[in-house]
Amino acid sequence: MTSLAVIARSAATTQSQSQSGKPAIPDPAASGVAGVAEIGFIRRDGATRLAHLYQHDPLRVLFPTPEPGDIPLAVLLTTSGGLVAGDRLTISVRAEENAAAQVTAAAAEKIYRSLGATTEITQHLAVGEGAWLEYLPPETILFDRAQLRRQTIVELGPRAGFLGGGILVFGRQAHGERLTHGLVNERWEVSRDGTLVWGDALHLDGDIAGILADPACLAGAAACATLILTPPSGDPRHFVDAARAVQARSAASGLQAGVTVVGGLLIARWLATDALILRRAYADLACHLRQAAMGLPPRLPRLWHV
Question: What pLDDT, on a 0 to 100 scale, did the predictor assign at position 230?
Fold first, then answer.
């Protein structure tokens, strides 16, 4: 599968301050809204507990009771119902030593049409020594002429495990709309012990309809997805054959999928002409990998099935 560009490169105290110690209040002079969500988990008294929480509109964080046998769950909610031009979100999640937690979102994120300004999302995910973090929000739906820049930085400590990724949907498929023009800049950086081990960038600009249709680019896809696994122990190559078998079971017309290992990470990719089929295939593999890597139940939160 072709990438357009690749770069190397419980109860606890809930605090109303950012991790720098100062309130993360947005600049009121800036255009658009500036939402903030900071979540910190620690391992204490034999269980993972919430250690830090800061939230600012339009972001909110919910903590539903996890299913039996599962790990603590945090759910991100955008109260505005979608993001418009100039909106900015900053999301920070930290799992301290030996903690284990899962983060998802209440619904698909919608990026509305822009007349010029860009929506910006920054996601910083830190996983401490021996900790496990899952970051599995549902899809991001890009309305026609949306403009989005999103950067996700993952920092892994020794023996840290991570399972996460994202789905991009190019237009409102149910309404017969396709993304034809706009801007999509999606960047990932994963480092272990302070060293960059994997970087990836997708950049779509200008005539996006032509790029999507090009057989050498996205080959007519209506959606794409990436899922990343770094197991806390063992060689990620040991997970490849089973992951490919799961992808094969999810095979459908118009769905392309692949799995490889790069920089000590298992990377799974999908392209699809039907976003719903891709979503199901992505969820199937995520369920398999969380069980294979951590012995967790092979399921995602109920929100994924609403």
Answer: 96
